[in-house]
Amino acid sequence: MKFSVTLLLAASAVEAHYRFSRIVVNGVAEAKEWTAVRQTKNYQGNHGVSDVNSQDIRCFQMRSGTSTATIEAGGTLGFIANAQITHFGPLSFYMARVPDGANINTWEAAGNVWFKVASIDAVRTAGGWTWPAFEKSVVDFVVPKSVPNGKYLVRVESIALHQAQSQGGAQIYLSCAQVEVTGGGSGSPGPLVAIPGAYKANDQGLLWSYHPVRTSYTAPGPKVWQA
């Protein structure tokens, strides 16, 4: 969707929020919320996280996991937005491999363990900006065939920029799913970053200007791993 200044201003007034509480594996959606997805603190209010230094920016979890989904490398893994993605901005997917012997249900994924595996970024056009994730109900990516076998936390992150004219205005909607990858390869994912730690509050990717309209935009965080 293309955004003029008028449309962007209208979008800034929208108060609808969303959460990612179910996953889709190769087109098959989970029947219930919070099955493979760790239950988040916004399970009732759908609000986002604005403090990039908060521990909530990692998985926003209220309860540790109870179930783990399985996907073969090369398959498509998606997250369902319960009320569509109602704010414009970039969307990223991160993965963190659970150490052998650790319990995926309680592993916290602290430290430099996360890599960005895919993204849905802004597109600059002659008429303005296109945000491909906007108004989507399902966002997904292909798990690279070279991802090593093992258990992972898979993190979806939608950065809403409609109120991001000043520092701290960006709203981040996120959750983490517990997934086991089979049939993988011998790749070395990276760069590895810590969450929190990968973003700074004054990152240009967490700010948005209506006047003047931005002429360039790069999402915050590391580059997508080139598998």
From TrEMBL:
The Auxiliary Activity family 9 catalytic domain is annotated at: 17-211
Report the leader peptide range: 1-16
Which CDD domains does its entry note?
LPMO_AA9
Sorted keywords for this record are:
Carbohydrate metabolism, Cellulose degradation, Copper, Disulfide bond, Hydrolase, Metal-binding, Monooxygenase, Oxidoreductase, Polysaccharide degradation, Secreted, Signal
Q: Where does this one sit in the cell?
A: Secreted
Q: Which biological process, per GO, is one annotated for this protein? A: cellulose catabolic process
Q: Which domain of life is it from?
A: Eukaryota
Gene3D superfamilies per UniProt: 2.70.50.70
InterPro entries to which the protein is assigned, alphabetical: AA9 (IPR049892), AA9_LPMO (IPR005103)
- Catalytic activity, EC: 1.14.99.56
Say which family it is in: Belongs to the polysaccharide monooxygenase AA9 family.
Please identify the protein, giving its name as recorded: lytic cellulose monooxygenase (C4-dehydrogenating)
Taxonomic lineage of the native organism:
Eukaryota, Fungi, Dikarya, Ascomycota, Pezizomycotina
